[in-house]
Design goal:
Radius of gyration: 30 Å
Shape: elongated
Strand content: 35-45%
Number of strands: 36
CATH topology of the largest domain: Neuraminidase
CATH class of the largest domain: Mainly Beta
Largest sheet: 5 strands, antiparallel
Number of domains: 3
Distance between the termini: 78 Å
Length: 470
C-alpha cells in the first residue's frame, strides 16, 4: 500500500521530468555559429553565420538577434535552419564584436529556444606588411602598430615581392625556386595556408599585382634562354578563377611595372615603345602615355589620372622637353658652354590618353616616387635639389595638391633618401623606406611620417617594400 501511494505521489513528478527531458530533446538550439568564439584578427567585412538544430520561424529569430557595436546589415536565410548577417558597413577596426541571440525564438513546430547565446570575436586593425630582411632571403611580415605584434605571413623560399587583395584576405607573392626562376603563390591571411598558383620553371615570375576585383593577377615573366643573354621581359595575366594565363605585352619585348587602374585596366611600361600602355584584360589597347624613363607611378583613387616621373635635361635656365623629344633636337652652338643637368619631373597623364601636365614646374631638381592620398586631395613624393645652394645626397618627402600647388616639405634629413611611399588607408600616416645616402652600408629602414606634422617614427630596420593591409 505504501509503495502504491508513493508511486501515485511520484508519478506527476516523473511525468514532468520526462516531459521536460523530451522537450529539451525536441526544443531548438543553436547548433553552430561562425566566427567561432574568441576568433581574432578578422576582416572588417566578416559575416556572422548561425545554424540551428531544426527549422526556425524567421521573424522570431531576427527580432532576437543583435550585435554590439551596432552596424547596419542584412539578415538572410539560406534555408530554414541557416541564417547569415552580412554587415553593410565594416565593423570598427580593433574592436571586440559581441553577437547575442536572446531566448524565445520559435521553431516551425512552435517550440522555443530555451537559452540565450552570446559570443565575441575581434576585428583586426590596419597592419603594415613588409619584406624582411633586406640583406638575406626575405619573407613577408605584418606589423600591428598599436600592439607591436609581428606576424610572419610567408615561409619557405625567398620572396621577391608581394601584393595584397583589396580586402586584405589574400597575399599574393613571388618566391624563388630551385631552377633559377621564381613561382607564384597565395597565402590566406586568416589561416596562414599557402598554395602555389603558377609553376614558372626556369622563368622568373615576379612583379605581382592583383586586380581591384580580385579576379586577375598580373605579373612579369623574365624568359629563360638556357644561359643565353636575353632581355626578354613580358607582362602576363593569371585568371585566378580558371588558372589560365595569357601574355598581355608584346612577345619577347621589354615590359615591366604592371599596375592596375582603379577602374580595372592594366598599365605597364613598354621599354621598346618608351611609353606606358593601358590595356584591357581582353588585350584591347585603352591609352598610351609617352615616357622615356619608365619608373613606378601612381593612379588617382578614382582612376582619372596617372602620375609618373620623367627625365628632362636642364641647360642652365632653359628647360628642355622629355628625353624622347630631345633625341631629334640639333646641337645648339650657343649652348655648347652650358652645363647640362638631368632632372626629373612628375607628369600627370589623363586616363583617356590626352596631353600630360607637368606638376613639378621647377628647374634643377629630382621629383620621384609619387603616392596619391586615399581621398585624392594630396600627392606625396620624394624630392632632391640638384643646384649648388640646395644640393643634398638624399631625397626628402614632400606634399602637393594634384595640380602642383601648396607645396610643402615633410622631412628635412639631407643624408636620407626616401622611397616607396605608401599612404595609410585612412590617410593618417605615410610609410616610406629610408636609406642613408651618405652611409650606403647601413641597412634600409621603414619609417612612418605624419602628413600633418612631419613627425617621423622608425618602425623596422633592415626591411623594405612596405604595404598597408586592410
Amino acid at each position: 500500500m505504501r509503495n502504491r501511494r508513493w508511486l501515485l505521489l511520484a508519478l506527476p513528478l516523473l511525468l514532468a521530468v520526462a516531459l521536460a527531458a523530451g522537450y529539451a530533446r525536441l526544443a531548438p538550439r543553436l547548433a553552430a555559429f561562425a566566427p567561432e568564439a574568441g576568433a581574432a584578427d578578422l576582416a572588417p567585412q566578416t559575416a556572422v553565420a548561425l545554424e540551428f538544430s531544426q527549422p526556425m520561424e524567421p521573424g522570431s529569430v531576427e527580432e532576437r538577434f543583435s550585435a554590439s557595436p551596432e552596424v547596419s546589415g542584412e539578415l538572410e536565410w539560406t534555408d530554414e535552419r541557416r541564417l547569415t548577417f552580412t554587415p553593410a558597413s565594416p565593423w570598427p577596426r580593433g574592436t571586440q564584436v559581441t553577437i547575442r541571440l536572446a531566448a524565445g525564438a520559435r521553431s516551425t513546430l512552435g517550440l522555443r529556444l530555451g537559452d540565450g547565446y552570446s559570443w565575441q570575436f575581434t576585428i583586426r586593425r590596419v597592419q603594415l606588411a613588409y619584406l624582411w630582411p633586406a640583406d638575406g632571403p626575405a619573407q613577408v611580415y605584418a606589423l600591428d602598430m598599436e600592439s607591436g605584434n609581428v606576424r610572419q605571413l610567408t615561409a619557405g623560399s625567398a620572396v621577391l615581392d608581394f601584393d595584397a587583395a583589396a580586402d586584405g584576405e589574400h597575399i599574393y607573392y613571388a618566391a624563388r625556386n630551385g631552377r633559377g626562376g621564381a613561382d607564384l603563390y597565395v597565402v590566406q591571411r586568416a589561416t596562414e595556408s599557402s598554395a602555389m598558383l603558377l609553376d614558372c620553371g626556369a622563368d622568373l615570375c615576379a612583379g605581382v599585382q592583383v586586380s581591384p576585383d580580385g579576379g586577375w593577377l598580373a605579373y612579369t615573366r623574365l624568359l629563360d634562354r638556357g644561359g643565353l643573354s636575353s632581355e626578354a621581359l613580358e607582362v602576363w595575366l593569371l585568371d585566378l578563377n580558371s588558372g589560365e594565363t595569357q601574355r598581355i605585352s608584346p612577345e619577347d619585348g621589354r615590359a615591366r611595372l604592371p599596375q592596375w587602374s582603379p577602374l580595372g585596366g592594366l598599365l605597364y611600361y613598354d621599354a621598346d615603345d618608351l611609353a606606358y600602355q593601358l590595356m584591357g584584360t581582353d588585350g584591347a589597347a585603352l591609352a598610351r602615355f609617352p615616357n622615356g624613363t619608365g619608373e613606378q607611378g601612381a593612379w588617382s583613387p578614382e582612376g582619372e589620372f596617372f602620375v609618373a616621373p620623367e627625365l628632362f635635361v636642364q641647360l642652365t635656365e632653359t628647360l628642355q622637353g622629355p628625353i624622347g623629344e630631345l633625341a631629334n633636337q640639333p646641337d645648339d652652338p650657343e649652348n655648347e658652354d652650358r652645363v647640362q643637368v638631368l632632372t626629373s619631373h612628375l607628369l600627370r597623364y589623363p586616363a583617356d590618353g590626352g596631353a600630360y601636365r607637368d606638376l613639378t614646374l621647377a628647374d634643377v631638381l629630382e621629383d620621384t616616387a609619387p603616392a596619391w592620398s586615399p581621398d585624392g586631395l594630396w600627392l606625396a613624393f620624394a624630392r632632391r635639389y640638384l643646384d649648388e645652394d640646395r644640393f643634398t645626397t638624399g631625397r626628402q618627402v614632400w606634399l602637393m595638391r594634384p595640380d602642383g600647388s601648396e607645396l610643402r616639405a615633410l622631412t628635412n634629413s639631407p643624408e636620407n633618401r626616401h622611397a616607396a611611399l605608401v599612404w595609410h588607408p585612412e590617410g593618417t600616416w605615410l610609410a616610406a623606406v629610408r636609406f642613408n645616402a651618405a652611409a650606403l652600408t647601413l641597412p634600409p629602414e621603414i619609417v612612418l611620417i605624419q602628413p600633418g606634422t612631419g613627425e617621423v617614427l622608425q618602425l623596422v630596420s633592415n626591411a623594405y617594400s612596405p604595404q598597408w593591409l586592410p
